Amino acid sequence: MNAPLPAQVLKQHLIDPEICIRCNTCEETCPVDAITHDSNNYVVDPDICNGCMACVPPCPTGSIDNWRLMVRSEAYSVQEQFGWEELPKEKALPVVEEATAAGLSGAASDDASDDASEGAAPPSAQAAFTLPGASVPPWSAAHPYVNLYTHKAPMTATVVGNYRVTGADTESDIHHIVLDFGELPFPVLEGQSIGILPPGVDAQGRPHHARQYSLASPRDGERAGYNNLSLTVKRVTEDHGGAAAHGVCSNYLCDLAKNDTVQVIGPFGHTFLMPNHPRANLIMICTGTGSAPMRAMTERYRRRMDTGENGKLMLFFGARTERELPYFGPLMKLPRDFIDINLALSREPGQPKRYVQDLIRDRAGQVRDLLADRNTCIYVCGLKGMEVGVLDALRDVTMQAGQDWSILHDVLRREGRLHFETY
Ligand code: FAD
């Protein structure tokens, strides 16, 4: 006979190491710092996680959404999880009389997200945390495919182009890289990303984890009708603090030659997607390689310029100088009545420093008019640090007109009209 256990049953939150692409989004999102990582895995500390679910919608792969009913004293520790190459099999829970009485069925679920939000987190913990952007796509976005190719079964793509898109004399080495998938399907949408598996192993002798890159081309290919896509990759030669560093994947990608092959996983992303209905307006705000999804969306609109279906495009693009701004030449050739371009240069000799948030304030009237139109979606992509500045600028332009930013911000999030992708 099974002895009853104390009511110490835990719905343990786990991250699937086979699908996780180590993008750090969950760790950055977790409001209680329950998520941590080592060089192998991202893991959830069972002693801290309150099941608030804040990390689930932003995860691009869905690897975050795994749950096990566990006897609390047997919960997988952080150290155990660091060593995993795959999720452990579910264990049958012993008969748990008190737990059953408390409403838990005793059958462990592989995907308990639906009910994990119930009862797991104190309501205050959920209410206290709000994402800066939406966790849903715009209502008219096309259906995205995600996780078609995984670490276990990646896709091989062939490099058909790789060239620098920033001035050769600048420190910023950004490449436009075109990958071809041959006969195999790789359906994507603008705003999605893919994972690249760099060859070789890390300092612990384990295969390098995948790095994520946004698509720079529209859904019908870098070249319309071809089964290819493009990326905008910055060669990482120093870390975020400015110390010398050799980025594993970015250097690998920037050094690829034509006809080399690359292991690809994905696609990823189900919210940072463009609206699909006629006359939708886009406000695009980016810096550096954050221009990749903006290029994809702009090109989608450019290819259907003659249909009369396009809404307005307004771009705020920040870089240190014009020569460090990827795609500067082609961008400036676009007709002014097709796209309203605002360049913010922070280190152009002889010019005052300008950041994207300065230009948003300069163009307050036009930004407000677009924000007032429910057909407008806003996309922000680039360095993590730009989030606060952009939100402050949007708040200022709204409040100048006597409107309440907090109400508008909620509407934009709820309607899937404000999206951030920062890294
Ligand atoms: P690593 O070997 O991982 O890191 C080396 C060192 O550099 C570490 O100290 C690390 O902290 C630091 N470092 C890591 N990333 C950066 C960085 N971006 N700038 C400065 N220092 C860094 N990158 C692109 O170039 N183009 C994209 O379109 C793009 N899209 C992304 C989309 C998403 C959703 C995410 C999460 C990331 C995206 N990235 C993009 C970043 C990319 O995934 C890699 O993190 C980046 O290329 C660095 O990888 P690495 O292997 O070269 O560097």
N- to C-terminal separation?
54 Å
What is the number of beta strands? 15
For the sheet with most strands, the description reads: 6 strands, antiparallel
Reading the helices and strands in chain order gives EHEEEHHHHEEEEEHEEHEHEHHEHHE
**Based on helices, strands and strand pairing, what is the structural class?**
alpha/beta
Kindly estimate the percentage of residues that lie in beta strands according to DSSP. 15-25%
Strand order of the largest sheet: 8-7-10-5-6-9
Low-confidence stretches: 1-5, 96-129
Number of helices: 12
Mean pLDDT value = 88
Give the fraction of residues assigned to helices. Answer: 10-25%
The ligands found in this model are: flavin-adenine dinucleotide
Shape: globular
Task: Return Rg in Å.
Answer: 23 Å
What's the layout of helices and strands?
Elements: E1 9-14, H1 25-29, E2 35-37, E3 42-44, E4 66-71, H2 78-82, H3 97-101, H4 113-116, H5 123-128, E5 155-164, E6 174-180, E7 193-197, E8 211-214, E9 228-234, H6 248-254, E10 261-268, E11 281-287, H7 291-303, E12 313-319, H8 328-332, E13 340-345, H9 356-362, H10 364-371, E14 376-382, H11 386-400, H12 405-414, E15 418-422
Parallel strand pairs: 11-12, 11-14, 12-13, 14-15
Antiparallel strand pairs: 1-4, 2-3, 5-6, 5-10, 6-9, 7-8, 7-10
Helix pairs in contact: 9-11, 11-12
The structure holds flavin-adenine dinucleotide.
